[in-house]
Structure formats: C-alpha cells, structure tokens
Amino acid sequence: MIEVKGHNGQIVFDGQTVTITRKGILGRLSVGKGEKRFHISQISSVQWKPAGPFVNGFIAFSAAGGNERRSKFGSQTSSAVNDENSVLFVRGKQQKAFEELRVAVEAAIAAHHGGGPAVQPPAASVADELTKLAALREQGVISDTEFQQQKQRILGQ
Questions:
Q1: With helix as H, strand as E and coil as C, how does the chain read?
Q2: Angle between helix 126-138 and helix 144-155 axes, rounded to 10 deg
Q3: Nearest to 43, CA basis, from 25, 26, 19, 21
C-alpha cells in the first residue's frame, strides 16, 4: 500500500484502487471535501507534471469517458487545483513519493491490460539468415569474404 499526502489532498493506492481524499481547508476550497475512488480498470491515463522551483507539480488520473478539459498554455497547475482527479505536490520529498506512486499505478495499469514485457518476435531461421546474406552479397553490399565470414558465424563454425 502506498500513501502520499499532497498540497490539496492525499492518495492511497492498494494495488487495485486509487483513492483520492480531500480534507482540511485547502481540500474544501479547491474541490470540496470527500473521497473519489478509481479501480485500475477505470484509469485510462496518468498525467504527471513535476514541481519546479516556483510552481507545484501534480498527478492527475483520467478515466475512460471522463469529462476532461484541456488547460491553456502555462496554466496546467492552476487548472489542476480545481480538478477532482488531481493532487498537487511540492518539490523534494513529496515529489519523490508521488513519483513512486505514479510508477506503481502505471505498472498496475499495464499488468491489468496485459502489458507485461514485450513479446520478442521469433528468431529468423538459419535458412532465412543465409538467404538475406546471399542477397546482400548479390547486391554488392558485402564482399565474398564478408559473406563467408558471416555464413560461418551463422552456421556456428
């Protein structure tokens, strides 16, 4: 379980559900107090903006079919303050904790959607490799000597 506390709310991730909780005066003023939960299957993307020296960063979760509006240039963070799917954070320790949360949520989303390690295509057969090598020799891309060397390498000699 990962718990992070931001500027206008906190997030708890248990491996399957992301819960955003708003408490306190800033939470009430920005979005209103309460709780919002997303199951991993509902999250279509995670938006991330790192904090800078003079501006807060934020993490935002998008759900399929959600009603999102695009921020104007230079106003992403101020728009995120009033977004119920976003939590702001400051540089340093908070940002590191939120970055760990982001990595964990994105990994869980990928695992849920079957996005495990990429499947490697099958290796070319020896005959395919020799055919390609012969074509390169015929096109003049490689010399007869290079052809023989590569052929021995392919055949394991």
A1: CEEEECCCCEEEECCCEEEEEECHHHHHHHCCCEEEEEEHHHEEEEEEECCCCCCCEEEEEEECCCCCCCCCCCCHHHHHHCCCCEEEECCCHHHHHHHHHHHHHHHHHHHHCCCCCCCCCCCCCHHHHHHHHHHHHHCCCCCHHHHHHHHHHHHCC
A2: 180
A3: 19
| pLDDT over 70, % of the chain | 75
User: What's the pLDDT tens digit per position in 1-41?
Assistant: 999 998 788 999 999 999 999 876 555 555 566 788 989 99
Distance CA 47, CA 119 (A): 27
Top-confidence residue, 128 or 122: 128
